[in-house]
Design goal:
The chain has 344 residues and is mostly helical. 74% of the residues lie in helices and 1% in strands. Keywords: Isoprene biosynthesis, Magnesium, Metal-binding, Transferase.
């Protein structure tokens, strides 16, 4: 535990260095007003999360190397980890606008802050372009630079497609809830969550270690399934989690989201219960939301989730144990243990 805290502390210390470099970029003629605005955008959106993706790059790289990282190795892994946190910040800023979210990480969403509004779209784009500048500064001379940039661009593209699918399916669901199926759900989640939250950090560490990604397709499949399990947890916490712990107020019911919970409810509900869902799902008034949540409880969605979580954990653990590399087994197990039965 102490070692993890030390890693986190060292990782956080690098944030201010990267921020300073971006705000004093010699290629840009910054005014003081521009610098202050960029600093506000960064400080509010980049370092305030759990930092799981960034730290996963460091921990995975350390495991692959088999011993303590040198100062330079730790620094480069941390830089790469922060690029993933910058990407995460970009995606969350834009996602909150599209989802009309209220809170994020225990605070009001960035776009809802005074004098921000839809300017947040520009800020999200700015955050994404920062990752390219950081990459170029620190990795341009590395042999894996092209693979690294192509990997991050590909995952960014996949995540954008996942968000588009989410919006398209939500639009269709408003007219017909039967469009919400597990097949549609998995397609959304794999593209929107799995690739960037689970595969990307591990793939980045593999490239840093000089590995060929094509040799790790089996690992990729496990990480994708881990991402699906993670998103199902997210859907559950959106409805039944404690907002004080989760750091955000769930709005999946109000937003007509293609959520794992509504899919389970539709499978279990008789015609009368389905009618309640059709009449109340996607409405923002508290009475409708309460009716949907009450129906979830009546159908024992919480019990079904508990069973799903236990089964998913065992299935993932079995797939991990089947891997021939003991190092990769430990890396994957550590990632799974970090999210198993999480509350936020």
């Amino acid at each position: 535990m102490a070692q993890l805290e030390e890693t986190r502390s060292r990782f956080l210390a690098l944030y201010d260095i990267l921020k300073h470099e971006l705000m004093h970029d010699a290629d840009i003629k910054f005014t003081e007003e521009m610098r202050l605005r960029v600093e506000e955008i960064l400080d509010y959106n980049v370092p305030r999360g759990k930092l799981n993706r960034g730290l996963a790059v460091i921990e995975t790289y350390k495991a692959l190397k088999g011993d303590e990282l040198s100062e330079e190795e730790f620094f480069l892994a941390s830089v790469l980890g922060w690029c993933l946190e910058w990407l995460q910040a970009c995606l969350l800023v834009l996602d909150d606008i599209m989802d009309n979210s209220q809170t994020r990480r225990g605070c009001i969403c960035w776009y809802r802050r005074p004098k921000v509004g839809l300017n947040a779209i520009n800020h999200g784009i700015l955050l994404k372009t920062h990752t390219h500048r950081i990459f170029r500064r620190y990795f341009r001379e590395k042999p894996y630079y092209l693979e690294l940039t192509e990997l991050c661009d590909e995952v960014g593209y996949q995540t954008s497609l996942g968000q588009m699918l989410d919006l398209v399916i939500t639009h269709e669901g408003k007219n017909d809830l039967s469009k919400y199926t597990m097949q549609a759900y998995r397609r959304i989640v794999i593209y929107k969550t799995s690739y960037y939250s689970f595969y990307l950090p591990v793939a980045c560490a593999l490239l840093l270690s000089g590995e060929e990604l094509e040799n790790y397709n089996g690992i990729k499949e496990i990480l994708i399934e881990m991402g699906v399990y993670f998103q199902v947890q997210d859907d559950y916490l959106d409805c039944f989690g404690d907002p004080e712990v989760a750091g955000k107020i769930g709005t999946d019911i109000e937003d007509y989201k293609c959520s794992w919970l509504i899919i389970q409810a539709l499978k279990l509900a008789d015609d009368d219960k389905k009618q309640i869902l059709y009449e109340n799902y996607g409405k923002s008034d508290p009475i409708s939301v309460k009716k949907v949540k009450s129906l979830y409880q009546e159908l024992d969605i919480q019990g079904i989730f508990s069973k799903y979580e236990a089964e998913s954990y065992e299935k993932l653990l079995s797939a991990i144990e089947a891997r021939s590399s003991s190092v990769m087994r430990e890396i994957l197990k550590a990632l799974l243990e970090k999210i198993y039965q999480r509350k936020k």
